[in-house]
Amino acid sequence: MNNTELRIGNIFEYDNEWFTVAGLSLKNGGHRIDFTETAQCKLVKNCNSINLDDKWLLELGFYAKEDRYHHEYYMFLDFWYISKKVKFDSVLYKLIINDNYIVHVKYVHQLQNLFFALTGTELELKTKTSA
Fold first, then answer.
1. Which of 4, 17, 31, 55 could lock 44 by a disulfide, CB 3.0 to 4.6 Å apart?
2. Which residues contact 70 (CB under 8 A, 6 or more apart)?
3. Any idea where the domains of the chain sit in the sequence?
């Protein structure tokens, strides 16, 4: 996971559990993440990105409509959505704007950052799940 991709509120995995970023700092020779839930501080290099999947999209307030995921708050804005494509044995999620492919979204924190950039609002969990 790259520390330059992280923002406060991003979801990440550490020790088989997920947490949200409460703060970022440079201490003791490495970038660190402060955890919201436990007030711990860990090196970014020891934390992992969470792969985006259908479960996470639903937990983040998206709903499925055929091979597309729209966010429930922006359901009337059909010009952008997440496209799901199954190729061989893998699933690809892509951000589509005005029917044009913009970027492949692989991780939950990437989707959170894109959502904020597009809407100006944070992408929050509906309920707390386990990783």
1. 31
2. 62, 63, 78, 81, 82
3. 3-46, 54-119
CA 128, CA 99: separation in Å to the nearest integer?
32
Dist CA 119 CA 122 (whole Å): 8
pLDDT at 37: 58
Instruction: Render pLDDT for 50-105 as a digit per residue (tens, 0 to 9).
Output: 999 999 999 999 999 888 999 887 765 667 889 999 888 888 999 998 889 999 99
Query: Is the CB of residue 118 less than 8 Å from the CB of residue 112?
Result: no
Angle (CA) 119-124-125 rounded to 5° is: 145
Mean per-residue pLDDT over the chain, rounded: 83
Pair 112, 7: CB distance under 8 Å: yes
